[in-house]
Amino acid sequence: LFQRHLGFALGRLHNLNQDVLNKEEELRKRQEEIEIEYAEKMKQAAQEVEEIRNKANEEALLARDKILDQAKTEKAKLIERAIAEKRKQEKQLETKIAQQGRSLASNLIEYIFSKEIKEAIHIQLVDELIEKLQATSHKLQARNNEQAEITSVYPLKAEQKKRLIKTLSEKVGQNIELKEKIDKEIIGGVIIKLGDIVIDGSLKNKLRKAMEQGTGSG
Question: Model-level pTM?
C-alpha cells in the first residue's frame, strides 16, 4: 500500500516538477524583458551623458573638466541603478517560483497521503537521519549540559528518542537531553538544533532541494 501511494505521489510530483519548469520558462521570458529594459536604460544613460558632454563643450574651458566628471558620476549611478533593479526583479521572480513550488508539493502530499501513510513516511525519515548520524565519523561540538532541540511533526517514538539520544551523546561525547517541539510546517522528518549546529532532515527541506535541483536542471 505504501509503495502504491508513493508511486502515485511520485507521479504527481513529476507533474509538479513540470509545472515548476513551466514557471521557470516564465522566469526566462521575464528575464528577457528585464534585459530589454536594462538595454533601454543603458541607451538612455548614454544619451544623457552625450547631452551633458555637448553642454560641457559649450561651457568655458575652466568649467569643462568639472562637468565631465559630473557626467561620469551620473552615468555610473544610472548604470548602478539599472543593474540593481534588474537583480531585484530576478530575485523576486525566483523567490516567488520557489515558494509556489514548495507550497504545491506540501499541499499535494497533504492531499494524497492518509494520516497513517504520512506517519509512516515521517518514521522512515527519522530512522534514516539517525542511521546517517550513526554512520558518520564526524564529531559534534556542544557546550556542557546543552540540550538538543528536536523539531518534529509528530512526537518521537520512544525507541527513536532513545536511539537519537544515544547517537547524539556519542557524537558529542557527553550525555545529551532532548527538547521536543512540534511543527506541522516541516511536513515530516525532524530538524535537530544543537547549539549553532542545525541538521535538517525534514521532508520540507528535501522538497526544497528537489525543487532547486529541478529548476537548475531546466
Answer: 0.49
